[in-house]
Amino acid sequence: MAVTLTVEQQALKELGRALRAETDGKAIRKDLIRQLKQPLQPAVTEIKSGVMSMASGGLSHGGEPLRAAVARKIRAEAKLSGYAVGVRVRARKTEAVRGFRNAPKRLNSPKGWRHPVFGSDRWVQQIGKPRYFDEPLEGRKAEFRRAVIEAMDSTARRIGYRIKL
C-alpha cells in the first residue's frame, strides 16, 4: 500500500530532518512537539470527560474501572519522522482491563459490542457512548491545521530554515 504525504506532512518531515542537524536540535524538537500537541489538549480533555460521563452499572469487580482505563489511554501525539508523520489524538488499547482490549473503539461505536453474561450461556449487546471520541474533533480540522503550520513556522524561523508549503 502506497502512502501519500500531504504538503504539510512532507514539510513537517523535512523540518524534523533539519532539527537533527542543529546543535541544540533535541531541545528545539521537544519544544516543537510540545507546540504541536498543545492545540489538541482541549479536545483531549473533552474526549476524556465524554468517556468519564458515560453511564456505569453492573457488579463490582475489584479492578480498574473501564471508563478511567479508557480515559487514561487517550492522548495527543506528534510524530516528525517515519511512516505516519503528523499530529493526532489517539486512544490506545486497554490491555489490562478485564480482557477488553478494544474498549476505546467499542465504546465509541454506535453498534457497541457483544459479550456473554457472567454465569450463563446468554450473550447481550451493549452500547457505550457512541461518538464520544469523534464529536470533539469534528469541525476543528482547520483550527488544528493552522496551529500546526504556526508551530512549524516559528520553529523554522528559530533555526533559520525555510519551509516549503
Q: Could you explain the architecture of this structure?
A:
- The chain has helices at 7-21, 25-37, 41-52, 66-72, 103-108, 141-159, and strands at 74-79, 86-91, 113-116, 123-126.
- Helix 1 runs parallel beside helix 6 and helix 3 (41-52) packs antiparallel against helix 4 (66-72).
- It has 165 residues and is of the alpha+beta class.
- Strands 1-2 form a two-stranded antiparallel sheet.
- The two termini are 25 Å apart.
- The chain has 6 helices and 4 strands; from the N terminus they run H-H-H-H-E-E-H-E-E-H.
- It is elongated.
- The model is unreliable at 1-5 (pLDDT under 50).
- Helices cover 44% and strands 12% of the residues.
- The protein has one domain (7-159).
- This is HK97 gp10 family phage protein.
- It comes from Sphaerisporangium rhizosphaerae.
